Amino acid sequence: MEKWLLNKKLDSGYLLGKNNLICKTAVPKELKKEFSKSGFNDVFRLYNPFLLKDMDKAVDRIDAAIKGRQRVIVFGNNGIDGILSTSIIYKALMKLGADVSYYIPDGNSGEKGLSIAAVEYVKNLAYDVIIVVGCGNSSDYEAEYAKALGMDVIIVDYNQSVSGKSDAIVINPNRNDCEYPFKDLTGCGVAFKFIQALWHYYGLNGCEDFFRYRCNCFNI
């Protein structure tokens, strides 16, 4: 029988602090390109994150979850982009006071993306919102199934040729119906835009904490 391990506490010191190689990839170079393209050199003057289609819906859903003490799980993948995207979203939601956990599949499990088994598992653990990061956009059926079970799915991704026709809330600059002007964000970049939107919504300072490794980054 397959066993899943859910981690309540993420070692963000390792993922975002002590491991220098990982730190340097935490927010990829394409955000620096967005600086250049915009003519700005300030994290607060990047493109408005609410230009991303359905960002407002995602922020509203997280706000409702926080206020209603609903349970949120961040579902990532075991690639570097997926791990870092999971880490920064998890850390941000913790800072906002959300009841949040995360799940990253074992690298040897062969598990790719959200699955029916995963949806049923998190439902049995009484989660209300699933945030899928870096797992692609082929989760329409799983999102529909989650909706039928009373859960909402937010997909944070960057893969191209996405229709946006889904029961999930899909944040993706490459959705066919998204007019966000910069299309080269990777998973970490889109995850940061999500955090940027949340910080803007709550009128918070300190969003740059999630951007502090922006220099000398790789495209990932």
Give the gist of this structure.
The chain has 220 residues and is α/β, with parallel strands linked by helices. 38% of the residues lie in helices and 10% in strands.
Notes on the protein architecture:
- The chain is α/β, with parallel strands linked by helices and 220 residues long.
- It has a single domain, classed as inorganic pyrophosphatase (n-terminal core), CATH 3.90.1640.30.
- It contains 8 helices and 5 strands, in the order ααααβαβαβαββα.
- It has a 5-stranded parallel sheet with strand order 2-1-3-4-5, with helices on both faces.
- α4 (55-67) crosses α8 (187-202) and α6 (116-124) runs parallel beside α7 (140-148).
- The longest helix is centred in the middle third of the chain and has 16 residues, at 80-95.
- The protein starts with 11 loop residues before the first helix and ends in an 18-residue tail after the last helix.
- Mean pLDDT is 77; it is low at 8-29, 35-41 and 213-220.
- InterPro entries: DDH_dom, DHH_sf, SSDNA_exonuclease_RecJ.
- Residues 71-199 form the DDH domain.
- This is DDH domain-containing protein.
